[in-house]
């Protein structure tokens, strides 16, 4: 496994474990690979309003638009109410200190509003 892949896998594990602990939900874990039917990198995350698709990024170059587009495809594949991106925040090693990127529409859905 190359170094970038190892960093990505380790970051996914950090985020999955951090969310599982913070949300007290042992169903949250790294997602299995699904090819074209990708549902995100973290499985088992739910808000009170439905499933959440999470894409995790640990890269040096930002591509917010591309990442959000990817999360929207995964949102559809997972039949989720929201697709979000969790991106590595340089110099921060704790799961809950990382960045979250999403559309305002998905934020409204997570908060229980009308996102139509």
What is the gist of this entry?
The chain is an alpha+beta fold and 116 residues long. The chain contains three helices and six strands. The chain has a single domain, classed as Trna Endonuclease, Chain: A, domain 1 (3-Layer(aba) Sandwich).
Kindly describe this structure.
By secondary structure, the protein is of the alpha+beta class. The chain has helices at residues 3-23, 64-78, 104-110, and strands at residues 29-30, 42-43, 46-47, 50-57, 82-87, 99-101. It is globular. The model has no long low-confidence stretch (mean pLDDT 94).
| The top level CATH class name | Alpha Beta
Low-confidence stretches: none
What strand order characterises the main sheet? Answer: 3-4-5-6
From the alpha carbons, calculate the radius of gyration and give it in angstroms: 13 Å
Looking at the structure, the CATH topology is Trna Endonuclease, Chain: A, domain 1
Q: Helix fraction?
A: 25-40%
CATH architecture: 3-Layer(aba) Sandwich
Tally the helices: what do you get?
3
The major pleated sheet works out as:
4 strands, mixed
Q: From the helix content, strand content and strand pairing, which structural class follows?
A: alpha+beta
Mean pLDDT: 94
**Strand tally:** 6
Estimate the global geometry from the Cα principal axes: globular
Q: Tell me the span between the first and last alpha carbons.
A: 42 Å
Task: Tally the structural domains.
Answer: 1
């Amino acid at each position: 496994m190359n170094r970038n892949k190892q960093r990505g896998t380790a970051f996914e594990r950090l985020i999955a474990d951090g969310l599982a602990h913070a949300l007290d939900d042992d169903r949250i874990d790294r997602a299995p690979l699904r090819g074209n039917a990708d549902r995100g990198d973290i499985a088992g995350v739910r808000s009170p309003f439905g499933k959440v698709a999470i894409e995790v990024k640990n890269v040096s170059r930002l591509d917010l638009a591309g990442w959000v587009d990817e999360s929207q495809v995964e949102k559809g594949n997972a039949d989720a109410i929201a697709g979000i991106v969790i991106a590595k925040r340089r110099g921060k090693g704790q799961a809950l200190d990382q960045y979250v990127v999403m559309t305002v529409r998905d934020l409204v859905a997570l908060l229980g509003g009308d996102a139509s």
